[in-house]
Amino acid sequence: MTNPHITESPVQHISHHDSRPSPKTESVVAALSSSNPQQRLQAALSVGTTAERSHLGALVQRCRYEPDFFVRDMLTWAITRMPAEEAVPALIVELSSDVPQAQSQALHTLSKIGDPRSWSAMSPENIGDKLIAHSDTEVARSAWRAAVALVPGDDRETLALSLVTQLGRGDMDTQKSLSRAIVSLGEDLVSVLDERLQAEEETVQTHALATRDMFTDPDAGFAHALSEAKRVVALGSEASA
User: Fold this and answer.
1) What share of the chain is helix, strand, coil (3-state, %, to 5)?
2) Which of 85, 125, 152, 207 has its CA 20 to 30 A from that of 46?
3) 154 burial type by CB count under 10 A (0-12 exposed, 13-18 middle, 19+ buried)
4) Average of per-residue pLDDT across 7-22
5) Is 25 within 8 Å of 56 (Cβ atoms)?
6) What residues have CB less than 8 Å from 181, skipping those under 6 apart?
7) What residue spans define the domains of the chain?
8) Which of 118, 87, 97, 95 is CA-nearest to residue 6?
9) CA-based Rg of the chain, rounded to a whole angstrom?
10) Distance CA 144, CA 93 (A)
11) CA 196 to CA 210: how far, in whole Å?
């Protein structure tokens, strides 16, 4: 289905004097936990449409375990409708979760919100390096995409140097995702690949070469760049044998 666009309608501000969940909040939690994915989708849509901040916690919590892609996407949309000053801190807490899906969904949602405050948690010197090198591929890929979306201009090189440590990792889709993230930081940073081009591991060397080619010819596509890089590395190995 086509995801709804974020509207510019003002968020309704509601004061709450009782910290206990209201019956309405409890009904939202129940609807978001329905066994029927269509009902969960409709619940997330309704919560995002009303944008009542009291439901933020239920949305974030559901992101940890929601199995359906389309429902997760709707949950993300609903969270982006909430006040950023509340949504961003709640999502940053999820970055330290021991549930990988909670981390990947939080990263994805933070990138959609685009609030500059998110970078304080995402920067490599804080938790960013752990997320960029996360053992769970989906978390790592979400971290790559979120980092390049949120990084301030002055921190691009620091981020690029962190990203290149992951060259050679995973299957073609994973490598393509990383290359795109690195290239999106700007062609003035192509030199961050130099050391990896001399790596002993052929997979790292090949991936670095393919990424460099994407800097110079982004229209060629990653599959073509990787195939050409493998050929060049193989020829180099034969020559030095």
Assistant:
1) 75, 0, 25
2) 85
3) exposed
4) 41
5) no
6) 144, 145, 147, 148, 163
7) 155-241
8) 87
9) 21
10) 18
11) 11
